[in-house]
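Worked Example 4.2. Consider the chain below.
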Amino acid sequence: MRLPLILSVVALTALLFYGAAQSIPGAIASSASADAIAEMEKANAQIEASRAAFDEQAATLNKTIDDLKAENLDQTSAFEAAVAERDALLSQRDQVMQRVSDIEAENSALAADKDALTQDLAALMAEIESRDSEDTTQALNDAIAAGQDEIAALQVTITELQQERDALSEQLAAIEAAAGEVPPGDVAQADAQSDQNAAALAEADERIALLTEMATVQVQTATGLTAEIEDLRAQLETLTSEASGLSDEVDRRDAIIAGLMSRMQTAAPSSVASCQEQTDAVLTARQISFEDGTATITAASIASLEDLAVIAADCAQDDLTLEIEGHTGDAGGVAANLLLSDGRAKAVRDVLVNNGVPARSVRAVGFGGSEPIADNATSEGQSQNQRIVFDWEQG
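Applying the procedure from the previous section yields the following structure tokens:
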């Protein structure tokens, strides 16, 4: 936009020069008097002076055009590189977003597994609490101890019965041995006694078998209860370990997601907005001012630029570029205002670079009076239009 404006100024100046030159022959033809000749010589002198001024201004404008062309070429290359980088970042962002989506899905599945395990764990804990409370455990231990005491008593009873059986067996054997010596009249009595002893012996064997079975059942019951308690405790430890592992996995995935989201949140828009807000705050409170009609920065504005340099140096680390825009009012010629605004923008750039801002992160552009923000018809409007603007961009 600036290059056509400069070329228009050059064309307009050339046209004025040509018109002035064409008016001279008419002036000569209209009068041959000495005054006319003097007037003509004066006009020639003015034309020569205008030509010299025009040549000087044209040379300056040509140099400015060459500089702008070179700068435009650099900006085009930078723009193309920025576009390529943006495309790469967009592709990377899409990949990151896909990864985040995958992680969130996996995280949801893990969270569901964790909830299910938590419910199972709670149910198991309730069951254990109902079956393995302190009172229940004590009751089971008491039952086991009572069973063991009963087993011991049964063993004593069994032993006594076995001894009784052995005694009866001996008695029966003695009776059978003496049967041949019993008188015929006592045989019936001996047989009755033998049958009685055999019945007692059978009864003793039956009681021994019953007591032995009861003792076996007691032992099996006590052993089963103990094994069941140990099994429930083992299940509790296993589920607790699994729940803890799942909690750690969920926390790890949450940390990954948080890291990815943090990287995405450091993208250019937030950095650009933050830097723009900081510099706008300084420029709103303290405008950059210059000596009248020059690109010389006033002493009062140097301190403001030093503060801005601290902000700009920090923002440059985020791969941002600062465009310094110079603007003027409409007093004076278009070309002069364009040159003045460009010189002022470059003066500001030089101060920033001298205060630690990387030169590659700053560029200066003059817009002259082409972008007013106030009415140039008033002195206040002219003052508002003479300004320096900081515009932050990515890359």
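The longest strand covers residues 320-327. The CA atoms of residues 320 and 395 lie 5 Å apart. Compare this with Example 4.1 before moving on.
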